[in-house]
Amino acid sequence: MQDQPKTGNDLRSDRGSPPGTPRWVKVAGIIGIVLVLLIVLLHLTGHSPGGHASHASLTKQGLQHS
Amino acid sequence: MTMAPGLRKFVLTAHVTSSVGWLGAVAVFLVLAVAAATSLDAQLVRSADLAMDLAAWFVIVPLCFASLLTGLVSSLGTPWGLFRHYWILVKLLITLFSTLVLMVHMQPIALLAATARKTTATFPGTDLHGIRNLLVTAAVLALLALIVLTALSVYKPKGITRYGWRKQRELRALAQP
Q: pTM, whole model, 2 decimals?
C-alpha cells in the first residue's frame, strides 16, 4: 500500500488555475445522490426500517412484547 | 501534525484490520439475514435473528467506529490529509453514511432478537418478514459500499481538491528559498 501521496501527477495544474473535478468523482457523486434519493424515497413510502409502515410495525411489536 | 513512521504504520494496520473486518462481518450478517428471510425452519430463523443482533452490536458497530476513527487519525496524521484528495473525501462520506444507515437499522435488528427470545412455540414474528427482507437489502448495500471503500483505498484514483491544491502550493512556496 502506498505510504505517501504522489506529487507529480496531481501537480500538473499546480502553477495555473485550480484543478477541475475528476470524471470519476462526478460519476460517483451522481450514483451516490441517486442511492440516497432512493433510500429517502423508500423511507417516505414506509418501505424501510425507519419508514412509517415499519414504525407502526415496530410500535405494535414493542407493545406486544413489553 | 504528521505522525512518526512507526505510529503511522500502527494506525494504518488498525485501519486496514477494522475496515476489512467490518466487510467480513457484514458478509456474515448478510448470510444470516438471507437465512432468516428465506428459511421455513422456525428454529433456524430464531437463531439467525439472535445471531444478527449479537454480530451487529458486538462486531459490526465496534468495527465500524474503529474504522472511522482510525481512518480519521490516519489521514489527519499523514501528508494525505482528510480534505486534500477526492478519494479520501469520498471514503469519508461513504463511511459516515454507512455508519448512519447502520445505526438506523439497529432498532429493527434488536426487535427481531427480542421477538426471537420471547417466542418459543410458534414461528417467530411472521409479520416481521418485511423487516427481515429490508435487512437483506441493507446488508447487500453495505457490502457494496465496503467493497467500494476497499477499492478506493487500493486504487487511490487521482484528483486533488481545491483545498489540497492550495495546500500543495503553500508547501511548495515554503520549500522554495
A: 0.84
